[in-house]
Design goal:
Distance between the termini: 23 Å
Radius of gyration: 25 Å
Oligomer: single chain
Largest sheet: 8 strands, mixed
CATH superfamily of the largest domain: CoaB-like
Shape: elongated
Strand order of the largest sheet: 13-12-9-14-17-18-20-21
Number of domains: 2
CATH architecture of the largest domain: 3-Layer(aba) Sandwich
Number of helices: 13
Strand content: 15-25%
Number of strands: 22
Length: about 400
Protein backbone atom coordinates (compact mmCIF):
# COMPACT_ATOMS: atom_id res chain seq x y z
CA UNK A 1 0.00 0.00 0.00
CA UNK A 2 1.53 3.32 -1.09
CA UNK A 3 0.40 6.80 -0.08
CA UNK A 4 -0.25 7.86 -3.68
CA UNK A 5 -2.75 10.73 -3.90
CA UNK A 6 -3.24 10.79 -0.12
CA UNK A 7 -3.52 14.32 1.30
CA UNK A 8 -1.10 14.70 4.19
CA UNK A 9 -1.05 17.84 6.33
CA UNK A 10 2.30 18.01 8.12
CA UNK A 11 2.66 20.17 11.22
CA UNK A 12 6.20 21.01 12.36
CA UNK A 13 6.87 22.45 15.82
CA UNK A 14 9.99 23.87 17.46
CA UNK A 15 12.41 21.02 18.10
CA UNK A 16 15.96 20.16 17.11
CA UNK A 17 14.36 17.18 15.36
CA UNK A 18 12.57 19.56 12.96
CA UNK A 19 15.26 18.88 10.36
CA UNK A 20 13.76 15.40 10.01
CA UNK A 21 10.55 16.96 8.71
CA UNK A 22 12.43 17.48 5.44
CA UNK A 23 13.13 13.73 5.28
CA UNK A 24 9.51 12.93 6.11
CA UNK A 25 8.30 15.32 3.40
CA UNK A 26 10.66 13.79 0.85
CA UNK A 27 9.46 10.25 1.63
CA UNK A 28 5.80 11.27 1.42
CA UNK A 29 6.24 13.05 -1.90
CA UNK A 30 8.25 10.13 -3.26
CA UNK A 31 5.25 7.88 -2.50
CA UNK A 32 2.97 10.20 -4.47
CA UNK A 33 1.29 11.91 -1.53
CA UNK A 34 0.12 15.52 -1.66
CA UNK A 35 1.79 17.37 1.21
CA UNK A 36 0.94 20.72 2.76
CA UNK A 37 2.94 22.03 5.71
CA UNK A 38 2.25 24.30 8.68
CA UNK A 39 5.18 25.54 10.79
CA UNK A 40 5.15 27.12 14.20
CA UNK A 41 7.23 30.28 14.48
CA UNK A 42 9.77 28.53 16.70
CA UNK A 43 10.16 25.73 14.14
CA UNK A 44 11.70 28.30 11.77
CA UNK A 45 14.72 28.42 14.09
CA UNK A 46 15.47 24.83 13.08
CA UNK A 47 14.33 24.52 9.45
CA UNK A 48 13.40 27.09 6.81
CA UNK A 49 10.04 27.37 5.05
CA UNK A 50 11.96 27.52 1.75
CA UNK A 51 13.38 24.03 2.30
CA UNK A 52 10.01 22.48 3.05
CA UNK A 53 8.23 24.43 0.32
CA UNK A 54 10.76 23.20 -2.25
CA UNK A 55 10.38 19.57 -1.11
CA UNK A 56 6.57 19.62 -0.79
CA UNK A 57 5.98 21.75 -3.92
CA UNK A 58 3.47 23.78 -1.91
CA UNK A 59 3.66 27.06 0.04
CA UNK A 60 4.51 26.61 3.71
CA UNK A 61 2.25 28.43 6.17
CA UNK A 62 3.06 29.67 9.66
CA UNK A 63 0.86 32.66 10.48
CA UNK A 64 -2.85 33.42 10.42
CA UNK A 65 -2.50 36.16 7.79
CA UNK A 66 -0.55 36.64 4.57
CA UNK A 67 1.79 39.61 4.82
CA UNK A 68 0.09 42.93 5.51
CA UNK A 69 -2.85 42.48 3.16
CA UNK A 70 -5.23 41.13 5.76
CA UNK A 71 -5.79 37.96 3.72
CA UNK A 72 -5.88 34.98 6.05
CA UNK A 73 -4.59 31.45 5.86
CA UNK A 74 -7.76 29.45 6.33
CA UNK A 75 -7.03 26.87 9.00
CA UNK A 76 -10.54 25.43 8.63
CA UNK A 77 -9.98 24.70 4.94
CA UNK A 78 -6.63 23.10 5.73
CA UNK A 79 -8.22 20.85 8.33
CA UNK A 80 -10.96 19.80 5.92
CA UNK A 81 -8.53 19.23 3.01
CA UNK A 82 -6.39 16.59 4.70
CA UNK A 83 -6.87 12.82 4.75
CA UNK A 84 -4.45 12.72 7.67
CA UNK A 85 -2.73 15.33 9.81
CA UNK A 86 0.73 14.48 11.10
CA UNK A 87 2.50 16.63 13.69
CA UNK A 88 6.18 15.66 13.56
CA UNK A 89 8.08 16.66 15.51
CA UNK A 90 5.54 17.42 18.21
CA UNK A 91 7.27 19.41 20.96
CA UNK A 92 6.16 19.40 24.58
CA UNK A 93 4.69 22.89 24.07
CA UNK A 94 2.68 21.93 20.98
CA UNK A 95 1.44 18.75 22.65
CA UNK A 96 0.30 20.80 25.67
CA UNK A 97 -1.44 23.38 23.49
CA UNK A 98 -3.26 20.75 21.44
CA UNK A 99 -4.25 18.73 24.52
CA UNK A 100 -5.74 21.81 26.16
CA UNK A 101 -7.18 23.59 23.12
CA UNK A 102 -4.90 26.63 23.23
CA UNK A 103 -5.17 27.94 19.65
CA UNK A 104 -2.30 30.41 19.95
CA UNK A 105 -0.84 29.64 16.53
CA UNK A 106 -1.91 28.42 13.09
CA UNK A 107 -0.77 24.85 13.74
CA UNK A 108 -2.93 24.35 16.84
CA UNK A 109 -5.89 26.16 15.26
CA UNK A 110 -5.64 23.84 12.27
CA UNK A 111 -5.45 20.81 14.57
CA UNK A 112 -8.63 21.93 16.34
CA UNK A 113 -10.37 22.29 12.95
CA UNK A 114 -9.22 18.95 11.54
CA UNK A 115 -11.85 16.29 10.95
CA UNK A 116 -9.33 13.73 9.76
CA UNK A 117 -7.24 11.33 11.88
CA UNK A 118 -4.32 13.09 13.59
CA UNK A 119 -0.94 11.56 14.41
CA UNK A 120 1.51 13.05 16.92
CA UNK A 121 5.20 12.09 16.82
CA UNK A 122 6.74 13.51 20.02
CA UNK A 123 10.34 14.70 20.19
CA UNK A 124 11.95 16.12 23.31
CA UNK A 125 14.50 15.35 25.98
CA UNK A 126 14.13 12.25 28.16
CA UNK A 127 12.99 14.01 31.34
CA UNK A 128 10.50 16.18 29.44
CA UNK A 129 9.05 13.12 27.71
CA UNK A 130 8.64 11.25 31.00
CA UNK A 131 7.36 14.25 32.98
CA UNK A 132 3.85 13.67 34.39
CA UNK A 133 2.49 16.76 32.60
CA UNK A 134 3.65 15.46 29.20
CA UNK A 135 2.36 11.95 29.96
CA UNK A 136 -1.00 13.45 30.99
CA UNK A 137 -1.19 15.56 27.82
CA UNK A 138 -0.39 12.60 25.59
CA UNK A 139 -3.05 10.56 27.40
CA UNK A 140 -5.54 13.36 26.73
CA UNK A 141 -4.69 13.41 23.03
CA UNK A 142 -5.25 9.65 22.80
CA UNK A 143 -8.58 10.01 24.62
CA UNK A 144 -9.65 12.48 21.91
CA UNK A 145 -9.06 9.79 19.29
CA UNK A 146 -5.59 10.82 18.17
CA UNK A 147 -2.69 8.44 17.58
CA UNK A 148 0.75 8.77 19.16
CA UNK A 149 3.76 7.53 17.22
CA UNK A 150 5.94 6.78 20.22
CA UNK A 151 9.32 8.44 20.55
CA UNK A 152 12.25 6.08 20.13
CA UNK A 153 15.27 5.30 22.27
CA UNK A 154 18.58 6.86 21.29
CA UNK A 155 21.03 9.69 21.76
CA UNK A 156 19.29 13.01 22.48
CA UNK A 157 20.37 16.61 21.84
CA UNK A 158 21.22 17.01 25.53
CA UNK A 159 23.74 14.20 25.30
CA UNK A 160 21.56 11.86 27.33
CA UNK A 161 20.53 8.50 25.92
CA UNK A 162 16.95 7.32 26.31
CA UNK A 163 13.37 7.77 25.08
CA UNK A 164 12.39 11.06 23.51
CA UNK A 165 14.07 10.81 20.11
CA UNK A 166 11.70 11.44 17.19
CA UNK A 167 10.70 8.19 15.50
CA UNK A 168 12.70 7.63 12.33
CA UNK A 169 11.06 9.12 9.21
CA UNK A 170 10.69 5.66 7.64
CA UNK A 171 8.87 4.43 10.75
CA UNK A 172 6.54 7.44 10.74
CA UNK A 173 5.67 6.96 7.07
CA UNK A 174 5.07 3.25 7.72
CA UNK A 175 2.56 4.14 10.43
CA UNK A 176 0.67 6.28 7.92
CA UNK A 177 0.68 3.39 5.45
CA UNK A 178 -0.63 1.11 8.15
CA UNK A 179 -3.41 3.57 8.93
CA UNK A 180 -4.71 3.46 5.36
CA UNK A 181 -4.55 -0.33 5.37
CA UNK A 182 -6.05 -0.91 8.83
CA UNK A 183 -9.48 -2.02 7.59
CA UNK A 184 -8.21 -4.78 5.33
CA UNK A 185 -9.23 -8.41 5.62
CA UNK A 186 -5.90 -9.20 7.34
CA UNK A 187 -6.67 -7.20 10.46
CA UNK A 188 -6.32 -9.68 13.32
CA UNK A 189 -4.91 -12.45 11.12
CA UNK A 190 -1.76 -14.29 12.23
CA UNK A 191 0.88 -14.59 9.52
CA UNK A 192 4.00 -16.77 9.76
CA UNK A 193 6.89 -15.98 7.39
CA UNK A 194 10.29 -17.63 6.95
CA UNK A 195 13.17 -15.70 5.42
CA UNK A 196 16.87 -15.80 4.63
CA UNK A 197 19.30 -18.73 4.34
CA UNK A 198 20.16 -21.49 6.74
CA UNK A 199 23.71 -22.46 7.70
CA UNK A 200 24.68 -26.12 8.13
CA UNK A 201 27.90 -26.49 10.17
CA UNK A 202 30.89 -28.56 9.04
CA UNK A 203 33.04 -27.67 12.02
CA UNK A 204 33.29 -24.73 14.47
CA UNK A 205 34.55 -22.50 11.61
CA UNK A 206 32.85 -23.55 8.38
CA UNK A 207 29.30 -24.12 7.19
CA UNK A 208 27.28 -24.85 4.04
CA UNK A 209 24.83 -22.15 3.01
CA UNK A 210 23.45 -20.19 0.02
CA UNK A 211 23.27 -16.63 -1.29
CA UNK A 212 19.90 -15.64 0.17
CA UNK A 213 19.96 -12.14 1.70
CA UNK A 214 16.53 -12.34 3.34
CA UNK A 215 15.44 -9.09 1.65
CA UNK A 216 12.38 -10.62 -0.01
CA UNK A 217 11.09 -12.29 3.14
CA UNK A 218 11.60 -9.15 5.23
CA UNK A 219 9.79 -7.02 2.63
CA UNK A 220 6.86 -9.46 2.73
CA UNK A 221 6.80 -9.31 6.53
CA UNK A 222 6.63 -5.51 6.42
CA UNK A 223 3.84 -5.52 3.80
CA UNK A 224 1.71 -7.88 5.88
CA UNK A 225 2.34 -5.93 9.09
CA UNK A 226 1.19 -2.75 7.36
CA UNK A 227 -1.94 -4.60 6.25
CA UNK A 228 -2.83 -5.15 9.90
CA UNK A 229 -1.64 -8.72 10.31
CA UNK A 230 0.13 -10.03 13.41
CA UNK A 231 3.41 -11.18 11.86
CA UNK A 232 5.93 -13.70 13.15
CA UNK A 233 9.14 -13.78 11.11
CA UNK A 234 11.54 -16.71 11.41
CA UNK A 235 14.86 -15.63 9.95
CA UNK A 236 18.12 -17.33 9.18
CA UNK A 237 21.39 -15.37 9.51
CA UNK A 238 20.95 -12.07 7.63
CA UNK A 239 22.14 -8.47 7.87
CA UNK A 240 18.69 -7.01 7.13
CA UNK A 241 17.09 -4.99 9.94
CA UNK A 242 13.68 -6.23 10.99
CA UNK A 243 10.80 -3.73 10.74
CA UNK A 244 9.29 -2.52 14.00
CA UNK A 245 6.15 -4.28 15.20
CA UNK A 246 7.19 -7.71 13.96
CA UNK A 247 8.02 -10.67 16.21
CA UNK A 248 11.35 -12.06 14.95
CA UNK A 249 12.83 -15.44 15.85
CA UNK A 250 16.43 -15.89 14.74
CA UNK A 251 17.63 -19.35 13.77
CA UNK A 252 20.71 -20.76 12.08
CA UNK A 253 20.20 -24.29 10.81
CA UNK A 254 17.41 -25.95 8.81
CA UNK A 255 16.47 -28.04 11.84
CA UNK A 256 16.11 -24.92 13.99
CA UNK A 257 13.98 -23.27 11.31
CA UNK A 258 11.75 -26.32 11.12
CA UNK A 259 11.28 -26.42 14.90
CA UNK A 260 10.40 -22.72 15.02
CA UNK A 261 8.00 -22.97 12.08
CA UNK A 262 6.33 -26.09 13.49
CA UNK A 263 5.84 -24.31 16.82
CA UNK A 264 3.86 -21.43 15.27
CA UNK A 265 2.21 -23.26 12.36
CA UNK A 266 -1.04 -24.45 13.91
CA UNK A 267 -2.05 -20.99 15.15
CA UNK A 268 -1.22 -19.21 11.88
CA UNK A 269 -3.85 -18.18 9.34
CA UNK A 270 -1.33 -17.56 6.55
CA UNK A 271 2.10 -19.19 6.21
CA UNK A 272 4.63 -17.88 3.68
CA UNK A 273 7.79 -19.96 3.25
CA UNK A 274 10.22 -17.52 1.63
CA UNK A 275 13.40 -18.87 3.26
CA UNK A 276 16.08 -20.65 1.23
CA UNK A 277 16.43 -23.72 3.43
CA UNK A 278 19.30 -26.16 2.95
CA UNK A 279 18.20 -29.50 1.45
CA UNK A 280 21.16 -31.33 2.99
CA UNK A 281 23.28 -31.04 6.11
CA UNK A 282 26.62 -32.68 7.02
CA UNK A 283 26.03 -36.05 8.69
CA UNK A 284 29.01 -35.54 10.98
CA UNK A 285 30.07 -32.18 12.43
CA UNK A 286 33.69 -31.96 13.56
CA UNK A 287 34.21 -30.56 17.05
CA UNK A 288 37.51 -28.98 15.96
CA UNK A 289 38.54 -27.11 12.82
CA UNK A 290 39.16 -29.53 9.94
CA UNK A 291 42.76 -29.20 8.77
CA UNK A 292 43.72 -29.07 5.11
CA UNK A 293 45.41 -32.41 4.31
CA UNK A 294 44.08 -34.47 1.40
CA UNK A 295 43.74 -33.19 -2.17
CA UNK A 296 40.18 -34.46 -2.20
CA UNK A 297 37.87 -33.96 0.74
CA UNK A 298 34.54 -35.75 0.88
CA UNK A 299 31.58 -34.68 2.99
CA UNK A 300 28.76 -37.08 3.74
CA UNK A 301 25.44 -35.27 3.67
CA UNK A 302 22.01 -36.25 4.91
CA UNK A 303 18.63 -34.77 4.03
CA UNK A 304 17.17 -32.04 6.20
CA UNK A 305 13.50 -32.00 7.18
CA UNK A 306 11.39 -30.79 4.26
CA UNK A 307 9.66 -27.93 6.09
CA UNK A 308 7.22 -27.14 3.28
CA UNK A 309 6.13 -30.74 2.74
CA UNK A 310 5.79 -31.44 6.46
CA UNK A 311 3.68 -28.35 7.11
CA UNK A 312 1.69 -28.99 3.93
CA UNK A 313 0.61 -32.40 5.22
CA UNK A 314 -0.76 -30.80 8.37
CA UNK A 315 -2.41 -27.81 6.70
CA UNK A 316 -6.02 -27.15 7.70
CA UNK A 317 -8.71 -25.99 5.28
CA UNK A 318 -8.77 -22.63 7.06
CA UNK A 319 -5.05 -22.02 6.46
CA UNK A 320 -3.34 -20.55 3.39
CA UNK A 321 0.11 -21.94 2.60
CA UNK A 322 2.41 -20.05 0.21
CA UNK A 323 5.66 -21.51 -1.10
CA UNK A 324 8.55 -20.18 -3.17
CA UNK A 325 10.36 -21.73 -6.12
CA UNK A 326 13.67 -20.41 -7.41
CA UNK A 327 14.40 -22.23 -10.66
CA UNK A 328 17.05 -22.24 -13.38
CA UNK A 329 15.24 -24.33 -16.01
CA UNK A 330 11.79 -25.83 -16.71
CA UNK A 331 10.52 -23.15 -14.36
CA UNK A 332 6.77 -23.50 -14.77
CA UNK A 333 6.80 -27.30 -14.81
CA UNK A 334 8.96 -27.49 -11.68
CA UNK A 335 6.87 -24.88 -9.85
CA UNK A 336 3.59 -26.64 -10.67
CA UNK A 337 5.03 -29.93 -9.42
CA UNK A 338 6.15 -28.34 -6.18
CA UNK A 339 2.74 -26.70 -5.73
CA UNK A 340 1.03 -30.11 -5.86
CA UNK A 341 3.59 -32.16 -3.92
CA UNK A 342 3.76 -29.81 -0.99
CA UNK A 343 0.06 -28.91 -0.82
CA UNK A 344 0.63 -25.20 -1.38
CA UNK A 345 -2.28 -22.89 -2.12
CA UNK A 346 0.04 -20.49 -3.96
CA UNK A 347 3.61 -20.68 -5.17
CA UNK A 348 5.80 -17.69 -6.01
CA UNK A 349 8.14 -18.48 -8.89
CA UNK A 350 11.26 -16.59 -9.81
CA UNK A 351 13.96 -17.59 -12.22
CA UNK A 352 17.68 -16.98 -12.13
CA UNK A 353 17.37 -16.53 -15.90
CA UNK A 354 15.65 -13.17 -15.32
CA UNK A 355 18.08 -10.29 -14.96
CA UNK A 356 17.68 -8.51 -11.63
CA UNK A 357 15.79 -11.39 -10.00
CA UNK A 358 16.85 -13.86 -7.32
CA UNK A 359 19.35 -13.59 -4.51
CA UNK A 360 20.95 -10.37 -3.25
CA UNK A 361 19.22 -7.99 -5.66
CA UNK A 362 16.92 -5.21 -4.44
CA UNK A 363 14.55 -6.15 -7.29
CA UNK A 364 12.69 -9.31 -8.24
CA UNK A 365 10.49 -10.63 -11.05
CA UNK A 366 7.86 -13.20 -10.14
CA UNK A 367 4.98 -15.31 -11.32
CA UNK A 368 2.38 -16.55 -8.84
CA UNK A 369 0.60 -19.86 -9.51
CA UNK A 370 -2.48 -21.09 -7.67
CA UNK A 371 -4.16 -24.47 -7.28
CA UNK A 372 -6.90 -23.52 -9.74
CA UNK A 373 -4.37 -23.29 -12.57
CA UNK A 374 -4.19 -19.49 -12.70
CA UNK A 375 -0.87 -17.74 -13.34
CA UNK A 376 -0.28 -14.12 -12.36
CA UNK A 377 2.68 -12.47 -14.14
CA UNK A 378 4.48 -9.42 -12.81
CA UNK A 379 7.21 -7.18 -14.23
CA UNK A 380 10.60 -6.57 -12.61
CA UNK A 381 9.97 -4.47 -9.51
CA UNK A 382 11.55 -3.53 -6.20
CA UNK A 383 11.17 -6.21 -3.56
CA UNK A 384 8.84 -3.91 -1.61
CA UNK A 385 6.57 -3.68 -4.67
CA UNK A 386 6.79 -7.44 -5.19
CA UNK A 387 5.76 -7.91 -1.56
CA UNK A 388 2.71 -5.73 -2.21
CA UNK A 389 1.79 -7.89 -5.23
CA UNK A 390 2.07 -11.05 -3.12
CA UNK A 391 -0.04 -9.40 -0.41
CA UNK A 392 -2.80 -8.54 -2.89
CA UNK A 393 -3.05 -12.12 -4.19
CA UNK A 394 -3.02 -13.55 -0.65
CA UNK A 395 -5.79 -11.15 0.42
CA UNK A 396 -7.93 -12.38 -2.50
CA UNK A 397 -7.35 -16.02 -1.52
CA UNK A 398 -8.00 -15.41 2.18
CA UNK A 399 -11.35 -13.85 1.26
CA UNK A 400 -12.27 -17.08 -0.56
CA UNK A 401 -11.51 -19.39 2.39
Amino acid sequence: MSLKNKKILLGVSGSIAAYKSALITRLLVKEGAQVKIVLTESAKDFITPLTLSTLSKNPVLSSFTKGGTGEWNNHVELGLWADVMLIAPASATTIARCANGLAENLLVATYLSARCPVFFAPAMDLDMYKHPSTVTNLTKLVSYGNTIIDAENGELASGLVGEGRLAEPEHIVNELRRHFLKNTILEGKKVLITAGPTQEPLDPVRFISNHSSGKMGFAIAEAFRLAGAQVTLISGPVSVTAPIGIQVEKVVSAQQMYEAAEKHFSESDVVILAAAVADYTPKHVADKKIKKKEDVFNIELTKTVDIAATLGKNKKASQLLVGFALETDNELENAKGKLERKNFDLIVLNSLQDKGAGFRYDTNKIKILDREGNTYDFDLKTKQEVAADILNIVVQKVAEL
